[in-house]
Design goal:
275 residues, elongated
């Protein structure tokens, strides 16, 4: 039996394809007899773009019951794809000429591409984050990391008088202090690499062979803290990418709207508009 979520997704895709086919057919039917069709498609395109910007406003007023954020996101994604088709119809499937028109088309392409990338990131990254524990609020990551660091430091310091040796403390200072001190391994985490944490654990295993029974117990606990810190860095890297993407997509969107308004002014000021 097909899962309900899959059925809903198939229904949305079918609706998008049907709407796209209808839009193409209507445009091709009307083009020979309506010389002002580009003006109509232009205003329709602007309306679609304005509706798409409502999603950002919806996230800022989440306390108002205006459908769930998930439904708004789905609506935003599929309407965004349809808006891409509307843009192609507006420019009659040809890349526009002229410096300003080229800039406007490039801005639209950048917004669309960044939206597609954001859609992929919003699906891929949360799935990866679930493999290393539950959700961790981004704002709490520095606090949790500090607690892990303090616990690791206290652990190795307490082992000194018990074992009457500084082997584990020396290893921590040489190999792990910088690891626990702040966020790291952004690149490896984004690439899905566990090389750094595996190296730390491998070095810890080497040192463990020379430790006393008491120190070995501390080393095992330290290994668990290494894994927790690495998982926390993984969450930070993934969530940072999602947050950084918004600082690309949203400014591009508002920049596109500004260019669109300038485009409308130029069209009606210098080409006679739809008269």
């Amino acid at each position: 039996m097909i899962h309900r979520t899959t059925l809903h997704r198939l229904a949305r895709v079918a609706l998008l394809l049907a709407a796209s086919a209808a839009a193409i057919w209507l445009h091709e039917e009307a083009r020979p007899d309506h010389p002002h069709l580009p003006f109509l498609t232009g205003w329709a395109l602007l309306a679609l773009m304005l509706v798409l910007t409502l999603y950002n406003a919806r996230k800022k007023i989440a306390f108002i019951p205006l459908l769930s954020s998930r439904l708004w996101l789905q609506f935003h994604i599929y309407l965004g794809l349809f808006t891409g088709l509307a843009f192609l119809l507006h420019i009659a499937w040809r890349w526009p000429g002229g410096v300003f028109e080229t800039l406007l088309a490039a801005a639209f392409a950048a917004v669309t591409l960044s939206g597609i990338v954001g859609w992929w990131l919003s699906r891929a990254i949360p799935r990866r984050l679930t493999t290393v524990g539950g959700e961790v609020p981004y704002e709490r990551i520095p606090i949790i990391a500090r607690d892990i660091r303090l616990k690791a430091e206290a652990m190795v310091l307490q082992a000194i008088p018990k074992s009457k040796a500084t082997t584990l403390a020396d290893f921590y200072a040489a190999r792990l202090a910088s690891f626990f001190d702040g966020p790291g391994n952004l690149g490896p985490h984004l690439l899905g690499s566990r090389r750094t944490v595996n190296n730390h654990l491998a070095h810890l295993a080497e040192v463990r062979r020379y430790l006393s029974a008491e120190e070995k117990n501390t080393a095992d606990q330290l290994g668990e803290l290494i894994r927790r810190k690495d998982a926390l860095d993984f969450h930070r890297a993934g969530q940072l990418v999602l947050k950084s993407w918004l600082f690309v997509h949203i400014p591009l969107t508002y920049g596109l709207l500004v260019l669109t308004l300038v485009h409308i002014y130029l069209v009606y000021a210098y080409s006679g508009g739809a008269r």
